[in-house]
Amino acid sequence: MTRFMAYRHFQTGTVLRIGLAAGTLTMLAAAVTAPPLRIPMLALACMMGVLGVLFHGLDVAVDEGSVRLSLGIGLLRKDIPRAEIAEVRPVRNHWLMGWGIRYFGSGWMWNVSGLDAVELRFTNGRRFRIGTDDPQGLCDALRSKTA
C-alpha cells in the first residue's frame, strides 16, 4: 500500500558544505606541507568529510501519519507521529543556535541552513524544531487534515 505524500522538501546546507569543504582542503594542505602534522591533519580531514556526508542536507516528508526527517545520506533519521503534534508554528532561530542536531532549552532542533524553522509542540508539552527554507509550506502541510 502506497502512502499519500502531502509534502516533501530537501534543503541543502550550502554554507555548511562550503565550510566543511574549505576545512577539509585546509587540513589536507596542512598534511602535505607539514609532515609532522600529517596524521592529525588527515584524521581531521576525514572527520570533516564524514560530517559533510552526515549533514549536507535535510529531507522533510509529511504523509497522513507522520513527519519523517532524514539528514544527509539518511543515516540519521527521525519519525514523528502526527497524532503527537498539538501545535505547529513558524519560528526564527537565533543565529547562536547553530546547525545540526541541537538541544535548545525547551526541545530539540534539526537544522542544516538558515534561521527559519517550524516549531512543533507535542501533546506532552515537549517541543521540536525543524529547520527549513519553506516554513509556510511545511506548516500548511502539517495543518492539513488530508495529509
Short characterization:
The chain has about 150 residues and is α+β, with helices and mostly antiparallel strands. About 30% of the residues lie in helices and about 40% in strands. The chain is built from three helices and nine strands; from the N terminus they run βααββββββββα.
Can you tell me about this structure?
This protein has helices at residues 14-33, 38-55, 135-143, and strands at 5-12, 57-63, 66-71, 76-81, 85-92, 100-103, 107-111, 116-122, 127-131. It is of the alpha+beta class. The protein has a five-stranded mixed beta sheet with strand order 5-8-9-7-6, with helices on one face. It has a four-stranded antiparallel beta sheet with strand order 1-2-3-4, covered by helices on one side. It is built from three helices and nine strands, in the order βααββββββββα. The protein is elongated, with a radius of gyration of 18 Å. It has a single domain (6-147), classed as Pleckstrin-homology domain (PH domain)/Phosphotyrosine-binding domain (PTB) (PH-domain like), CATH 2.30.29.30.
Segments where pLDDT lies below 50 for 5+ residues? none
Provide the gyration radius in Å. 18 Å
Level of helix content? 25-40%
Number of DSSP strand runs: 9
CATH class: Mainly Beta
What is CATH's topology name?
PH-domain like
Q: How many alpha or pi helices?
A: 3
Q: Give the overall form.
A: elongated
- State the order of secondary-structure elements, H for helix, E for strand: EHHEEEEEEEEH
> Major sheet: order of its strands?
5-8-9-7-6
Q: In the CATH classification, which architecture applies?
A: Roll
